[in-house]
Design a protein that fits this description.
414 residues; Rossmann fold; Dehydroquinate synthase-like, alpha domain; 11% strand; 15 helices
Length: 414
């Protein structure tokens, strides 16, 4: 069986946030709201439009604004303690992936303090067939996600990651119980994103699309969303990058594209590009979107092999068809070529032109990662990338040596 799952409600259109919040009172009868965000967003007034509306509605609220860029277990425990004292019946996570990850973790610990993280983070091939039964969520609090950047798609995904700051272990949680109940995609919350954030999150959304399309678990539903999102990103990301708040249409289109990409990979999942990007971020502190941008060209070529060393295993995926799928993407966005191979290369060329426009550098080395440090960590990083949760849905199962080769190409630009 396959399925397609998204939040119960997704509000979109510029300026929709205050109107969507009215549902908390008039339809859902919520009394107490706990807002989760980071210090920058809080101090720069990003939560004010929410708290002003909650005041107007007569809904009691408090804000936790101590979320770190890579949410830790300590942060989750601290926020949950404040949540337990306040006893909300609604949680609103405001921000990028970090705030939403933190909010989801706090939601879990608030509703089910008895749970063990190592059990919830158990590995699986297919999220629909987990050994561990995730508990029912939403019985204490209704979860609302409000993105402030166009990229992560966390507002519509069932994933979250928290790091144990004492051991360095990352706990990836994935279950559809973690899907937000409501997503409010209002580009007014993204209008003043700096160029660097617009670039990194926009290219992250692009890789979400390409990985979801290639995934063994892709369906007609996820392909449709991913292709339309890609087409939108190619057209509007350069405008959003160049013009920022002066081009609200581009901001709104990118907000929608990022959320559509999130819906696609929430159901089709990702692949080895994200696996490698996760480790580049962990070992060398590259922003997640940038790390994906540096790896995607090599992954597209790697996945396109018609005779892979090893093919991924999933019942509905009976033969390698990734090259044809990439060619279909090229056709959809108007890229020509005399063969599927040529269409793939022209697609990569278009991606590279986009990366150049939004000022993403060409290699890992260009971002100041020391060569000796990179080479010293390469073997361990490659092994960890192979073991990453995202690798399992990649259409071509990589050898660790093949991951290492892609890392080296991305470092030197070969």
């Amino acid at each position: 069986m396959l399925w397609f799952r998204v939040p119960e409600k997704v509000y979109l259109k510029r300026g929709c946030l205050p109107f969507a919040l009215e549902e908390l009172k008039y339809d859902l009868n919520k009394k107490k709201v706990f807002i989760v965000t980071d210090k920058f967003l809080f101090e720069n007034g990003y939560t004010k439009v929410i708290t002003d509306k909650l005041n107007e509605l007569g809904i009691e609220h408090t804000t936790y604004s101590n979320v770190t860029s890579d949410p830790t277990l300590e942060c989750g425990i601290e926020g949950t303690k404040a949540m337990q004292e306040f006893k909300p019946d609604c949680i609103i996570a405001v921000g990028g992936g970090s705030a939403m990850d933190a909010g989801k973790i706090m939601w879990v610990m608030y509703e089910h303090p008895e749970l063990k993280f190592d059990e919830m983070a158990m590995r699986f091939m297919d999220i629909r067939k987990r050994i561990y039964k995730f508990p029912k969520m939403g019985e204490k609090a209704y979860f609302v996600a409000v993105p402030t950047s166009a990229g992560t798609g966390s507002e519509v995904t069932p994933f979250t990651v928290i790091t144990d700051e004492k051991t360095g272990i990352k706990y990836p949680l994935a279950d559809y119980e973690l899907m937000p109940k409501m997503a409010i995609v209002d580009c007014n919350m993204m209008m003043n994103s700096p160029k660097s954030l617009t670039s990194a999150t926009g290219i992250d959304a692009l890789t979400h699309c390409l990985e979801a399309i290639a995934s063994m678990m892709a369906t007609d539903y996820t392909d449709g969303l991913a292709k339309q999102s890609l087409k939108t990103i190619f057209e509007y990301l350069p405008r959003a990058y160049d013009n920022g708040a002066n081009d609200p249409e581009a901001r709104e289109k990118m907000a929608n594209a990022a959320t559509m990409a999130g819906m696609a990979f929430a159901n089709a999942f990702l692949g080895v590009c994200h696996s490698m990007a996760h480790k580049l971020g962990a070992y060398h502190h590259l922003p997640h979107g940038i790390a994906n941008a540096l790896m995607i060209d090599y992954v597209l070529r790697f996945n396109s092999s018609e005779v892979p060393t090893k093919m991924g295993t999933f019942s509905q995926y009976d033969h390698p068809n990734t090259l044809r799928k990439y060619a279909e993407v090229a056709e959809f966005i108007g890229i020509g070529g005399n063969s599927d191979e040529e269409k793939l290369e022209n697609l990569i060329k278009k991606i590279d032109e986009l990366k150049e426009h939004i000022e993403i550098k060409k290699t890992i080395k260009d971002y100041g990662v020391d060569e000796k440090v990179f080479l010293d960590t390469l073997d361990e990083m490659s092994e960890m990338a192979y073991d990453d949760q995202c690798t399992g849905s990649n259409p071509r199962l990589p050898l660790i040596s093949e991951i290492k080769e892609m890392y080296l190409k991305a470092y030197y630009g070969k």
